[in-house]
Amino acid sequence: MKIHKISILMLMSLLMANCDSDDDSSNEVPQIDLKAEFILFSVEPSTQFAGTATITGIVKNIGDDFNSGAGQQTISLYERSLGTPTNQSGNLVASLNFETLAANETLEVSYSRPWNSSSPAEGEFPPEYILVISYDPDLFLDGNLNNDDTNTANNEILVSGSLINNMF
Question: Which of 26, 57, 110, 161 could disulfide-link 77, Cβ–Cβ 3.0 to 4.6 Å?
Answer without folding.
Answer: 57
